[in-house]
Amino acid sequence: MALPVLALRDVHLVDGRRSLFQGVDLGLEARVRACLVGRNGAGKSTLLRILAGSTAADGGERIAGPGLRIGLSPQEPVIEGDALWAYAAAGGAARHEAEAALASFGLDPARPTAGLSGGEARRASLARAFAGAPDVLLLDEPTNHLDILAIQSLEARLARSRAAVLIVSHDRAFLEKVTTRCFWLEARRVRRLDAGFAGFEAWAEAIAATAVEEARRLDKA
Questions:
Q1: pLDDT value at position 36?
Q2: Strands 59-64 and 33-37: what pairing?
Q3: What is the domain partition of the chain in residue ranges?
Q4: Arithmetic mean of pLDDT, 210-215
Q5: What's the rounded Cα separation, in Å, for the pair 176 and 155?
Q6: Residues 6+ apart with CB under 8 A from 13
Q7: 197 — alpha (psi -120 to 50), left (phi > 0) or beta?
């Protein structure tokens, strides 16, 4: 089995008085397209930021190979800079890579960053993430504000990518089409399913049924 290019080991994080994560283990290998599933407020976006290295955990390890390039598209991108190419290049790509990525998402690299629509801002954020062929893509609600054609283009782009991909999204149809693995953030820990999102519900229901049966068994003991 391939080694992860990016991993978390025994990670925990406390938010105020609330424990968000406890003993989280998660690994991403090249070409794996995974989703991170969990209830609202469970900490999915926070976990993506820990993987990206922009948020520190309270304990555990973040393991990344030397020179690892990570492309991050956050849930609420803030598009800054004088022109779109400068914003996209600020993610670590060369100018020509940033310009090529923006053009591939249907955006003029010389366009000012002010006055973008929601869909244009999302495409700019995705272009910044994809620019320079990163080793890892971390995408938080990547289909927000995109039309059908843009979503289909993103699906095809992900299918061609060699990167390790982790996606947080409420777009079930999108997840069913693109993912090959599921991580479930539940009860402060992460469970792993080596199958795409299409198999998630049956798997989660089986886990819940097993937990109920175990609780009944303990009550009778």
A1: 98
A2: unpaired
A3: 6-68+135-220, 78-133
A4: 77
A5: 11
A6: 19, 20, 21, 43, 46, 50, 57, 58, 59
A7: alpha
Residue 106 to residue 108: CA distance in whole angstroms? 7
Q: Shortest CA distance to 69 belongs to which of 85, 49, 92, 48?
A: 92
Edge-first strand listing for the sheet containing 59-64: 18-28, 6-15, 59-64
pLDDT at residue 161 is higher than 80: yes
Spacing of C-alpha 34 from chain mean position: 8
Q: What is the pLDDT at residue 221?
A: 60
96-122: pLDDT as tens digits: 999 999 999 999 999 999 999 999 999
45-87 per-position pLDDT tens digit: 999 999 999 999 999 999 998 899 999 999 999 999 999 999 9
**What's residue 157's pLDDT?**
96
User: ∠ CA 199-204-208 to the nearest 5 degrees?
Assistant: 155
Rounded CA-CA distance 6/175 in Å is 21
Residue 156 tokens read as 């095809």
Nearest to 186 by CA among 59, 37, 68, 85: 37
CA angle 135–140–144, rounded 5-degree value: 125
pLDDT computed for residue 219 by the predictor: 72
Kindly report the CATH number that applies to the domain delimited by 6-68+135-220: 3.40.50.300
Tokens of 158: 């992900």
